[in-house]
Sequence to fold (689 residues):
Amino acid sequence: MTHIGKYVVLRELGQGGMGVVFEARDPTLDRPVAVKLVKDRGDPERFLREARAAARVIHPNCVPIFDMGEHAGNPFLVMELVVGMSASDYLERHAPLSPRVATDIVAAACRGLQAIHDAGLVHRDIKPSNLLISKAGTVKVADFGLARVVDGNAPTLTGDRTIGTPQFMSPEQCYAEPADARSDVYSLGATYYVLLTNRHPYRGEHELQIMFAHCNDPIPDPREVVPSVPESCAQAVRKAMAKNPAERYQSAQEMLADLEAILAADPSPTLGLNGTATPPSRGAPARFSLAPTASDTAPWQPDKGDDETGETSLSGQEDTTTRRRWIIGVSTSIALGSLGGYFALRSNSDTRKDDELRPEVAAKPVLVPVRNVGGAVGVLGVAVSDDEHWLAVALSDAHAPSKAGGVKLFDRTAGAVPEVWWKWRDDSCNSVAFSPDGKLLVAGFSGSSKIRVWSMATQKELNFVASVFKGDASGNVVAVAFSPDGKLLAASSDGWVSRPGRVRVWRVSDGSHLRDLTQQEPGRPVQPIRGISFSPDGKTLAAAVKMAPGSQPLIEVWDAESGNHVKTLLVTQATLGPCVAFARNEPLIAYTSQEDVQLARPLSFNPDKRLVTNNNEPAGIALSPDGTLLAISFSETIELIDTKTERLFPPLKGQGGQIYSLAFTANGKTLISGSQSKTVHEWSIPPRE
Fold:
């Protein structure tokens, strides 16, 4: 076989119960992919529905489905090719695992499982060999060959074939009853038991004995095998593995809360994935690193099911010639760890020690809290006027019952009563920006698909031609920006359905529409645009373009005045979408992917520095005006790094909620952050050498 659809087959990686997996090459984008040829899709309509549901799982560290099709009557799925090691192999190498490391892995799995469950899917085969640890150190839930959309008729046995792996199957799976998210929680509890003890929870001479034990035997206590396991870990195992689903954790998120409490109370060092001890970072999850050895090059093979029915120890079971160390991952692997779950920002040459970190960055009081503004989304954009007098906040909650979305404007000098203006309660706002002279405020909206520009002097809306993105240009307005000289205004849309995202440019002096900028390659899959930024001289405009099925995320660069395309910067996988930001007063651009942050100079755009994020994707990014400090948000944490020395500062914590938006004041002394928790924080930035 040389081709599957348009994909050039390079080699077979292996066969499993659900199909055959190949390493292949996408000839259009010239990149490696994994192609899974499914043996039996069952109901074609259901297969398509479930594949689409899996592809819609949007998680900060998701490994997406790129494409799907049919070959010789059998469906196939195209996914990212991932390099890593399974938790089973990691256990084999490092057993016994410390409770800290075992909990780190399972907590990450909870995050990924919650994303899967939120999409209406149940995995049905959670086990150590299906938890991959990527080369960058991120835990990923793998093998969606068994994933099903939740409904009342989803059996767990088909004929004589068991759906799941007996060592980790929930009682309802053993009884062939419909499985829901709590079934995956049970399997994850059994996995936690294995990682803590290096043994399976139940043993038997054949599969039926093991399945009977899952249904009838007492819940196993890991402390009976390893007395040093903390009681809190044992309690989590027992609750996850309760026979009655109603007595378990009712969601992966609920289990995660207990695991995070365990991690917060555990001061012990975590074991890096290269086997070196690494101290925890102020209660944050482990900093993982993965160093290959000569023996770690065997390709991962699709799992055929765990059959170690009578073994008391899991390590050392396989002959060394067949051990699977490195994994070339397959299927719709959902990467785990939230935006900041396992974040360690470091340069390739970083050799600093934790005790060399500078003093903790001071956090000011919350000067401008945004409270009780509606639903769960909260703040998606923040902007500060150059005179630092005004703060604008974009609220994306217009569709909540309170209709409390729109724009809030705060007078930062007003003390305890900062709110002075609030408009457009009926529309969801994604982004805000002040003109350099502070005379104008622009905001981009979703519900109306338009920009609104106000005069700060009169607080009245101004007329801009083609302010609504409609027709072929339809889409939510997700980003807005003024050029540094204030002459141009740009806004980007994410596109709808088959329409590409685009950037629209206006002349500020008269509100005239200059042009629309769209993707450069004819025939390329349509991709939404996430963010935009002008270079310090105003001559260059960069746009962060999100990934779409069959496409790669990238940064598009145009000449701002003429609209001529300048360059395309390819970005590795970035499910949330890459971020892009220019420094205001320094010719420096930063852009992100799931794996790193690149720093480049606008003259050539050749990457000057690469800062590794260990496969944790940023949600927000900002450069200080002088370009010396980079701020990146991951989940509830903001990381700060000196762009010259690559020194990492202690993280900013305590705001709560996913932090989507970051902005420096014009003097670079204050960082503003807006979060999903409907709050805005101001952080004082200490002087730097």
Observations:
- Residues 151-162, 271-376 have pLDDT under 50 and may be disordered.
- The CA atoms of residues 133 and 139 lie 4 Å apart.
